[in-house]
Amino acid sequence: MQMLATGLQRNGEAVEVWKPVVCFGRFAKSTLSGIGKWLGYLDKWILFPILLHIRRRRFPTARFHVCDHSNAPYLGHLPPNRTSITCHDVLAIRGAMGFADAYCPASRAGKILQRWILSHLSKCNRIAVDSEMTMCQLVEISKQVDPKSQWQVIHVGFNDLFEPMNADDAMKILVANRIAVPNRFLLHVGSSLPRKNRRMLLRMVPALGSRWDGKIVFAGQAMNTDLRSEAIALGLNDRIIEATSLNHETLVALYSLCEVFVFPSYSEGFGWPLIEAQACGAPVIASNLEPMPEVGGDGAIYASPDDVDQFVEAFMQFQPEAVRSSLIQKGFENCKRFDPKLMIDKYQALIYSG
Predict the structure, then answer these.
(1) Rounded to an integer, what distance in angstroms lies between the CA atom of residue 219 and that of residue 198?
(2) What is the pTM of this model?
(3) CATH number, residue 260
């Protein structure tokens, strides 16, 4: 949201950012669960729409952009001919509809919420979608014969500077953050959600056997109980490093030092870590399921997220320096597609069209 606002301002547009006001939520210790969650919903779905109606009257010619598809119900409170929205993915919506390949099961209340979101999203005339795969899925579930003329795929741009970091500098940063990485390690960045398929890295190490003696770094969310138990059962507990609560500098250091970045996800709307790793000069092995090939282009090797042998074979392909260097260079070239300026220009054209 802030990146889009700042980019449009640099392009000469006058921009205001409107967010829900925390009112009822102040009376709860947390708005993430229990009564606090429902008090937060009052702020988001009752109070803020009222404020939208009041505020929009001051701007009779303004254009409005809703920055995330989860906020699609706000579309009902904004002028349809002057409003657009970003759809990052439809994973939660498809999960609520029973699509197992979304890896996003929903509760009864969640199913109702996702139907409500979809009903508004599918009626919007201007939608920016993060990937071709998400566009196809949105067209399918919204029962559109063809996407509307102003439904466009706009790949997201980098939200920060990602570039190779000098090895000595990177190691100093990791040491300062008490992350004791070895010379050789596989890196995964993300959560422990099942769709992220962190288990693939655990399976790769035994399959590599004596051909590789490095470690695994799980960056981002800590391992869950199931994954930790599996690591212990495989005798890998001492070959795993967890790096949580990372700042940007530390993340770039990990990308820059890893032997290979492994992204075996089953389900993504875009897959940002893939291009972050490429931009930092990391060799990338990713799932062959879309949108990973769409995003990674020819700067990565792709393998079935169910086939450990394919991931091991892909890993071994990186061992010759010529192959490694070639793929890294292709990764750098691929990243040029995600220049933030390109994204902002396309958003500007969409938001102010018609």
Answers:
(1) 11
(2) 0.92
(3) 3.40.50.2000
